[in-house]
């Protein structure tokens, strides 16, 4: 959802400086993210939908209005945050292979918390079951925070979450990290193996972040924004801030419109068949 993208850019995840510098690069001054919402409000009015109603419940009607591929022009890939499988501290399994063995011996017994039906953990959990031949119970929550609280309390067994969302709990030993679903280990938690190292090859999933503009944005503006992204991410302070928050800036070669478009295309081709086959819908 574009709304979520706007909200993420407003928040501390980018430390606000990235947006600020990009805005200065194009306009000579910073602008409010509400200006971006005005673009979507115009589209909603054209479709005969009350923007105020959508602001109250952005799921549903807004999805029918906004085409995330054709309504936006890619600017640049910004950062990547791999998913990992974490479990309550009292689980007997000490590694991913032991966990998978337990799941296969007791199908449907393990409980996996998800921060909402149709969200990232739901999709990645379905992907995990398909690739490991396991079966477990999904336990939906109204958001990631109450789900994590129940995991810490031992009320559920596992969850799939972004590295950034459970970094503190893993570091403190409050939860077990079984595997990072990426090709390389996460620098901030070097003791956590990858899914490949754990014997489940090719099991990759991440929450990645990019920057888009409305489709009709002039090419010279896209180029300026892209240049600002590149300059901002090259700043050591900004780069380190991303790392501290569990985000890893993409390599310089991918911080481009083509890099973002290719990533988006590849992710749609990978995840849409899984979502469709499982009948997953956002709620």
Strand-helix topology:
Blueprint: H1 2-10, H2 17-27, H3 34-46, H4 51-56, H5 61-65, E1 72-88, H6 96-105, E2 111-114, H7 120-132, E3 137-140, H8 144-153, E4 158-162, H9 163-172, E5 175-180, E6 206-214, H10 219-234, H11 236-244, E7 248-249, H12 257-278
Parallel strand pairs: 2-3, 2-4
Antiparallel strand pairs: 1-4, 1-5, 1-6, 1-7
Helix pairs in contact: 2-10
Walkthrough of the structure:
With 283 residues, this protein is α/β, with parallel strands linked by helices. The protein is 47% helix and 17% strand. It is built from twelve helices and seven strands. The protein has helices spanning 2-10, 17-27, 34-46, 51-56, 61-65, 96-105, 120-132, 144-153, 163-172, 219-234, 236-244, 257-278, and strands at 72-88, 111-114, 137-140, 158-162, 175-180, 206-214, 248-249. Strands 1, 2, 3, 4, 5, 6 and 7 form a seven-stranded mixed sheet that branches. The longest helix has 22 residues, at 257-278. It starts with a helix and ends in a 5-residue tail after the last helix. 33% of the residues are buried.
